[in-house]
Amino acid sequence: MTDTTERADTSDRADELAARYPALHAPQYWNWGHYDARFSTVLPPDALVTNIHLVGFADGEVVLCRDDRDHWFLPGGTRERNESVDACLERELREEAGARLLGEAGWLGAHRCRTEDPVPYRPWQPHPEKAWLWGWGEVVLDSSPTNPADGEQVVEVRPVPVAEAQRLLLTGHDAWWGELIGLAVELRQRAGLG
Question: Is residue 65 part of a domain?
């Protein structure tokens, strides 16, 4: 297959998924960080990735974390200086979910973000553009969250059925969260795991 054919196949697949998950792919504004954000299944360059999050599946259910503010979320977080994507994912799963990835993560895509802020969130991060990488993978919950002082204080980690995960994430979040879970379920099924 030629490089041009591969790019066309990738573009066709991205267009197909954008049509099926319109809220996920719609332009967004994330007020908390002053970000204009746009999701794409086309992966960004590694140098732009500042945050990594995972739709983790434990025995077919989605692993969610609840913090001390009663906020449900997917495990993941900010990449440290010189940290690889894989090392960040491993660390964040341990810190927030007490979880370990079984095998390789599959990548759903990323939100490419551009901020109005004059300085980056952390000095080593790309600015004003960066990317939040979203993945899926099989995990095992084999310890407790480590709850570092500078992170969310997780009070509960629970694997829940897909529909419940979508419901819990939609409480206080935008509609695209439910579609993000749906995309993870679809790609997991395509990989023969669902």
Answer: yes
Residue 85 exposure: Cα atoms within 13 Å on the Cβ side: 20
Task: Decide if 19 is inside a domain.
Answer: no
- Show the beta-strand stretches assigned E in the chain: 28-30, 35-40, 49-58, 61-67, 72-73, 76-78, 99-115, 129-141, 154-160
Query: What does the pLDDT look like over 150-172, one tens digit per residue?
Result: 888 999 999 999 999 999 998 76
Query: Which CATH number do you get for residue 138?
Result: 3.90.79.10
Determine how many CB atoms are found less than 10 A away from the CB of residue 146.
13
Residues 134 and 110 sit within 8 Å (Cβ to Cβ)? yes
**C-alpha–C-alpha distance, residues 151 and 128, integer Å:** 23
Measured CA to CA, the distance from residue 192 to residue 52 in angstroms comes to: 24
pLDDT digits (tens, 9 = 90+) for 82-137: 999 999 999 999 999 999 999 999 999 999 999 999 999 999 999 999 999 999 99
CA distance 64 to 56: 8
Q: Domain limits at 172?
A: 24-190
